[in-house]
Amino acid sequence: MTSNYNHSTIDSPIYLSDMVVFDQTYKSYYHPLCFYASKFVGRNEAEDIIENLFLKFWNRKQVFKDTAHMQASLYQSVRNACLDFLRSPKNKNHIDTTILEAQSSATENHLSLLIKAEVMAEIYRAVNDLPSQCSKVIRMGYLEGLNNSEIAKELGLSEQTVKNYKGRGLSLLKDKLSGSAFTMLLLLITWK
């Protein structure tokens, strides 16, 4: 496989034993899967679950017949891993998994979460395609929730420069994202 490998255009087997394919799969799906998992468990637990899931796929040298099969397997595996996590003895006192299973098995809710996760994937891909510094500022400010002064301090920039990068980034994202993805990004920005 070449480094130009793209999941959205491939209808042939996907070999996660190939380092380039694995790396691109991880980068493409990590954040959307974390978003999806965080609807079942906490953010830190979601990140651990996703990292463990990818480690399992790497160790198994997982092969998927095509992109649709891979996406379905990833989301189903995440859901199952979250439920397993919640069923574990150390979490029994924190949540009634029967309620969670009933809620998460509802097709409408499940599909809604998948759609939101895919829109988040589109947002993350677009943010990653921005110029480097602009991408960092947008990610830190809008997706990680840092304020301008925190971003400026961490990146060694002035607050005005951070504001400029945010404005430029949003302008570029408006052109790159579908209407629904840009709307969701705006909702994320305003609800933080």
TrEMBL record:
GO biological process: DNA-templated transcription initiation
Recorded superkingdom: Bacteria
Keywords recorded for this protein, A-Z: Sigma factor, Transcription, Transcription regulation
Keyword Ligase: no
Record keyword Nucleotide-binding present: no
Pfam families reported for this sequence: Sigma70_r2, Sigma70_r4_2
Residues covered by the RNA polymerase sigma factor 70 region 4 type domain: 122-171
InterPro entries: RNA_pol_sigma-70-like, RNA_pol_sigma-70_dom, RNA_pol_sigma70_bacteroid, RNA_pol_sigma70_r2, RNA_pol_sigma70_r4_t2, RNA_pol_sigma_r2, RNA_pol_sigma_r3/r4-like, WH-like_DNA-bd_sf
Residue ranges of domain RNA polymerase sigma-70 region in the record: 26-88
SUPFAM superfamilies reported for this sequence: Sigma2 domain of RNA polymerase sigma factors, Sigma3 and sigma4 domains of RNA polymerase sigma factors
One MF annotation (Gene Ontology) recorded for this entry: sigma factor activity
Homology family: Belongs to the sigma-70 factor family. ECF subfamily.
Protein name: RNA polymerase sigma-70 factor (ECF subfamily)
